[in-house]
């Protein structure tokens, strides 16, 4: 089986974007690949964070992913900082990463702008550590959302530069996009993101869901109930496509384009469907949050087996480099 690697930052409760852009795809790939999933805490420290919350965030990231369907029996789940070889390989790979390419990265540009006072080298070399995360396990396949494709392209280039110098040691990773690789935020303008106040998290109660959906942007041309709308221009319709049945999609499309139903009714159907997706995940999370030992054991087992693979790769890399 080919090895698959992907990561998620412990930077907040996971949201619909993470779920449909990444996690729901990860679940489908379990059993088809040798799957390794990592909670990338070293990546999360590239922007300001609360140290007193970090352990809780890491724990919650593990719980969120297991609750959403990542079965620890079918994959390894672990915390990045528990396997020090990630940063060791990152240093080596930084010597094969071009500064021009790193400064071209959209995420670096956006986040250094967003956190101007905190724009740091870690943010700049984020894609190098990401390359090391994958390469340390000789990962070949990386399922990600569209926002990460540029980083995986760069990872291929960094690995290629290394291999050109020292022989074919690290596989060039390929991204695997989910069928819904880019979920927009509730603002309708930016991608849904943990650090922006534009997300629907996988733990919202029905009341919280409605509080977020009710004021959310729709087709701006639809000012009054009697104005027909265009689902293609409505962010809510893009959400419907994630969770609503074919019949409901038909009903909403017809209702919207003929002004037969208003945005309120359309959002009510959406709210019901999001709620049906979220409820079992939320219930499972509630149970797992109380089962600390189980979750910590999953992470410890994951780290232990990952350390073995990582050590082997580091030995091979160092030997090839004359270190
Ligand atoms: N809006 C999105 N649509 C599709 N996929 C998405 N992903 C994130 N947002 C969307 C995918 O989720 C995986 C894990 O993401 P992450 O948390 O490690 O990194 P991120 O892209 O930085 O996610 P956020 O929510 O935007 O976090 P913050 O705000 O902390 O930076 C990745 O595969 C990503 O593509």
In the predicted model, the low-confidence regions spanning at least 5 consecutive residues are: none
Spatial sequence of strands, sheet with the most strands: 1-2-3
In what range is the share of β-strand residues? 5-15%
What string, H for helix and E for strand, traces the elements in order? EHEHHEHHHHHEHEHHHHH
What small molecules accompany the polymer chains? adenosine-5'-tetraphosphate
| Share of residues in helices | 55-70%
> Any idea what the CATH superfamily of the largest domain is called?
HUPs
Mean pLDDT: 96
Structural class: mainly alpha
By DSSP, the count of extended strands is: 5
CATH topology of the largest domain: Rossmann fold
Q: What's the overall geometry? A: globular
Q: Just give the CATH class of the largest domain.
A: Alpha Beta
Describe the structure.
With 323 residues, the protein is mainly alpha-helical. It has 2 domains: 3-183 and 292-321, Rossmann fold (3-Layer(aba) Sandwich), CATH 3.40.50.620; 206-285, Orthogonal Bundle (Tyrosyl-Transfer RNA Synthetase). The protein is 55% helix and 7% strand. It has 14 helices and 5 strands. Strands 1-2-3 form a 3-stranded parallel β-sheet. A two-stranded parallel sheet has the order 4-5. Strand 4, helix 9 and strand 5 (174-177) form a beta-alpha-beta unit. Helix 10 runs antiparallel to helix 13 (263-289). The two termini are 31 Å apart. The mean pLDDT is 96. The protein binds adenosine-5'-tetraphosphate. The site of adenosine-5'-tetraphosphate has 20 residues, from strand 1 and helix 1.
């Amino acid at each position: 089986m080919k090895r698959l690697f992907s990561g998620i930052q412990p930077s907040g409760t996971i949201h619909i974007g993470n779920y449909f852009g990444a996690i729901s795809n990860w679940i489908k790939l379990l059993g088809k690949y040798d799957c390794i999933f990592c909670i990338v805490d070293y990546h999360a420290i590239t922007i300001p964070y609360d140290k007193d919350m970090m352990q809780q965030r890491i724990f919650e990231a593990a719980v969120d992913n297991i609750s959403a369907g990542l079965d620890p029996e079918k994959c390894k789940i672990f915390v990045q900082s528990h396997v020090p070889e990630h940063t060791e390989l990152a240093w080596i790979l930084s010597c094969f990463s071009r500064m021009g390419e790193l400064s071209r990265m959209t995420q670096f540009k956006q986040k250094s702008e967003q956190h101007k006072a905190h724009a740091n080298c870690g943010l700049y070399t984020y894609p190098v550590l990401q390359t090391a995360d994958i390469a340390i396990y000789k990962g070949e396949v990386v399922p990600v959302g569209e926002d990460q494709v540029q980083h995986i392209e760069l990872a291929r280039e960094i690995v290629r530069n290394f291999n050109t110098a020292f022989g074919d040691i690290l596989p060039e990773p390929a991204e695997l996009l989910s069928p819904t690789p880019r979920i927009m935020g509730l603002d309708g303008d930016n991608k849904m993101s943990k650090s922006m106040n534009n997300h629907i998290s996988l733990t919202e109660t029905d009341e919280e869901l409605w509080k977020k959906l009710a004021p959310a942007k729709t087709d701006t041309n639809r000012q009054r109930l009697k104005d027909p709308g265009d689902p293609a221009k409505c962010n809510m319709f893009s959400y419907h496509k994630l969770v609503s049945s074919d019949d409901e999609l038909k009903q909403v499309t017809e209702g919207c384009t003929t002004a037969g139903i208003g945005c309120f009714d359309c959002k009510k159907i959406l709210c019901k469907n999001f709620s049906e997706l979220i409820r079992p995940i939320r219930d499972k999370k509630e149970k797992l949050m109380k089962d600390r030992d189980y979750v910590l054991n999953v992470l410890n087992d994951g780290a232990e087996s990952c350390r073995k693979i990582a050590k082997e790769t580091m030995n091979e890399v160092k030997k090839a480099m004359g270190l």
